[in-house]
Amino acid sequence: MLTMNDVVKEGHPVLREKALEVKLPPSTEEIDTLKKMMDFLKNSQTPEIAEKYDLRPGVGIAAPQINVSKRMIAVLAEDSKGKVYDFGLFNPRIVSHSVEKSYLQSGEGCLSVDRAVPGYVPRYARITVKGTDIEGNEVNLRLRGFPAIVFQHEIDHLNGVMFYDHIDKVDPFKVPENSTAIG
Ligand SMILES: CNC(=O)c1cccc(C)c1Nc1nc(N2CCN(c3ccccc3Cl)CC2)nc(N2CSC[C@H]2C(=O)NC)n1
Fold it and tell me: Could you give the ipTM of this predicted complex?
């Protein structure tokens, strides 16, 4: 199982690389890695297991964060209506997005960042994501709210982008143009 020892921290060059497309169909090893990432999120959100293995809770993780520079992400997050988004995706890409922006009122955290970085992270309010799931099916997801934020945070990792790259350097809490706060 993955633990925090497997998670690389900011400063590691892999977090600034552009991750490679996964050649489909994925190899057994790539499928196993994606399964491990999905299991990590589940374990991190299960109090007894998180406590036992000292896991930091997360709702998303990208392969570069475990030093695998491949375009793979896992998400386990709920939206405001309690709908659970439980996905492992190969080669996720944002195929369309709203003009409107949104941001987490409380800012964002990252498993690879062991410090609080205050400030609003402007994201697209609504996105359409295409990718291939762990069974090899093409998925087409229309996302908004917290899940949309999480998918954008994880897809950023595949392009070497960290959440704080988006925070306004002059006024971290400047409300982004044409945006809605979440949470
Ligand atoms: C600096 N302020 C903050 O961190 C922050 C502070 C307050 C609120 C929010 C909303 C904040 N922001 C933020 N909170 C989260 N969690 C909320 C708690 N939760 C969780 C915790 C315990 C059990 C189960 C679970 Cl589910 C785990 C996930 N996650 C992310 N991100 C950014 S997108 C990827 C995602 C991620 O997984 N990060 C590790 N941001």
Answer: 0.97
